[in-house]
Amino acid sequence: MSKIKVLIVDDSATVRTVIANILSRDNDIEILGAAANPVFAQRKMEKAWPDVIILDLEMPKMDGFTFLKHIMSTRPTPVIICSAHVESGAGDAIKALSLGAVEVISKPALGIQTFLTENARGFIHSVKAAACANTTKLTANVAVAGEQESLKKQGAGVILPLSIPPEKKLVCSATKIVAIGSSTGGTIAIESVLAQLSDNIPPVLIVQHMPGKFTRAFANRLNNICRLTVKEAEDGDRLNAGCVYISPGDLHMLLKYKDNQYYVQLKDGPLVSRHKPSVDVLFRSVASCAGKNAMGIILTGMGNDGAQGMLEMRKAGALTLAQDEASSIIFGMPKAALKNGGAIRAVNLADIPGNICQFK
């Protein structure tokens, strides 16, 4: 298996050196080169094309946004944005994702060497995840997830114990619920689905792997372009038809049922399946509270978060679907849900809105 060839584009010599040193420690990664700005990067890419590009946003001669547009319009390639600029402006992160970046990493303006060194494991993981992206699906709207890494993978039980088998749980409400989980490539997939839905669908709960500082901006963007009401979920939100609730990026989101009404519960805690929020946590709570009145959908993403929770939903009688390989940026999460029997069938992204409409 050939190594993942990485090009680093950043005007800071320190950043280029530190990132190169970190990635060079991994036997699966090769540093193809480093450039101080996109103009120099283009010259290097004329000689050898990288598998993954790590790109700053603010640079002399050409900014990162312009270069990102150029890459996606000429030869779509996985790009990881690593910039201090997104630290103060979540809108820039969402813009970069919408232009085709597969992930955005917010680096601090000060202490960058320490930050990168302390997050070396996650950085390597991000590069490997990006290298798995289906480049035929990368377009100027492809978005990404903030992958989170932990040394020990934990199940949803650390947040919500599975004390009662879902299939025996009494379902006492006829109100239907749609739960969606996604990761790398998920932001554009979610946008594609929601943009085609009218406001007479059941409440939709979404866990998208993304840093907490970006989820509100992501929800606001969707609210502006969709007929549905989209918001970043708040603890205690009462679920209403035609509304979409995006989990905050630094909390687990659960479905709660009380007094014949569904509510959002937000809960802090450890990473589950290496993520917070975790799709497994959301799906388990939906299996427990909504059972056969729920629909679970797992979209593109690296890893297997959501597979176990979707299996619990299916056992509770829910309709469970997975995005198919042909339309996924990364088929990891849908594949895991299909493999363990959690997802009943694979569905092309273009057909998912129709399935939701039929479920209402």
TrEMBL record:
Residues found modified as 4-aspartylphosphate: 56
Positions of the catalytic residues: 183, 209, 305
Highest taxon above the source species: Bacteria
CheB-type methylesterase domain ranges (all copies): 171-360
Location of the protein in the cell: Cytoplasm
Enzyme Commission no: 3.1.1.61, 3.5.1.44
Record keyword Ribosomal protein present: no
Coiled coil: none
InterPro entries: CheB-like, CheB_C, CheY-like_superfamily, Sig_transdc_resp-reg_Me-estase, Sig_transdc_resp-reg_receiver
Keywords associated with the record: Chemotaxis, Cytoplasm, Hydrolase, Phosphoprotein
Response regulatory domain sequence ranges: 5-122
PANTHER family found in the cross-reference section: PROTEIN-GLUTAMATE METHYLESTERASE/PROTEIN-GLUTAMINE GLUTAMINASE, PROTEIN-GLUTAMATE METHYLESTERASE_PROTEIN-GLUTAMINE GLUTAMINASE
Function (record text): Involved in chemotaxis. Part of a chemotaxis signal transduction system that modulates chemotaxis in response to various stimuli. Catalyzes the demethylation of specific methylglutamate residues introduced into the chemoreceptors (methyl-accepting chemotaxis proteins or MCP) by CheR. Also mediates the irreversible deamidation of specific glutamine residues to glutamic acid.
UniProt-recorded name of the protein: Protein-glutamate methylesterase/protein-glutamine glutaminase
Source organism (scientific name): Thalassomonas haliotis
Source species taxonomy: Bacteria, Pseudomonadati, Pseudomonadota, Gammaproteobacteria, Alteromonadales
